[in-house]
């Protein structure tokens, strides 16, 4: 099982980024997918989830209305569109199907002026 996250970077407050996660090693279309993030000195936290077919999503209260999770099962890829970014969104972002399967390298998102 492998997860390769990309799309992070440095952005000003109020800006946008689109993260991608390419997954392999399992039947992607059969699993719900999640995005997590971990800020320096903090625990990893769940940000967003999407059902296997993409019809159902859930978000942490802190990102609701600003972030959108989506997936393309033909490409084995899950996305996280992040709008109206805030400094407190600064973290390393990871995707996951099962946390017991381990983590990719993550992608760093830094929101700063």
Which properties best describe this structure?
single chain; 113 residues; mainly beta; four-stranded antiparallel beta sheet; 48% strand
What would you say this structure looks like, in words?
0% of the residues lie in helices and 48% in strands. The chain is built from no helices and 10 strands. The strands form 2 sheets. It has a 6-stranded mixed β-sheet with strand order 2-10-9-4-5-6, with no helix packed on it. A 4-stranded antiparallel β-sheet has the order 1-3-8-7, with no helix packed on it. A hairpin with a 6-residue loop joins strand 5 and strand 6 (57-59). It is globular and about 40 Å long. The termini are far apart. The mean pLDDT is 97.
Q: Structural class of the secondary elements?
A: mainly beta
The number of strands is: 10
Share in β-strands:
over 45%
* Percent range of helical residues: under 10%
Number of helical segments with 4 or more residues: 0
Low-pLDDT sequence parts: none
Strand order, sheet with most strands: 2-10-9-4-5-6
| Biggest sheet statistics | 6 strands, mixed
The arrangement of helices and strands along the chain is: EEEEEEEEEE
Q: What is the oligomeric state here?
A: single chain
Summarize model confidence as the mean pLDDT: 97
What gyration radius follows from the Cα positions, in whole Å?
13 Å
The general outline is globular
| N- and C-termini, Cα separation | 37 Å
């Amino acid at each position: 099982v492998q997860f390769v996250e990309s799309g992070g970077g440095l952005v000003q407050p109020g800006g946008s980024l689109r993260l991608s996660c390419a997954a392999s090693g399992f039947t992607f279309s059969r699993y719900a997918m999640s995005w997590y993030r971990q800020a320096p000195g903090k625990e990893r936290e769940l940000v967003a989830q999407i059902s296997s077919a993409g019809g159902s999503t859930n978000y942490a209260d802190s990102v609701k209305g600003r972030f959108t999770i989506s997936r393309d099962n033909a490409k084995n890829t899950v996305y996280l569109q992040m709008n109206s970014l805030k400094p407190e969104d600064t973290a390393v972002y990871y995707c996951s199907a099962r946390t017991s399967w381990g983590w990719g390298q993550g992608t760093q998102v830094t929101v700063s002026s």
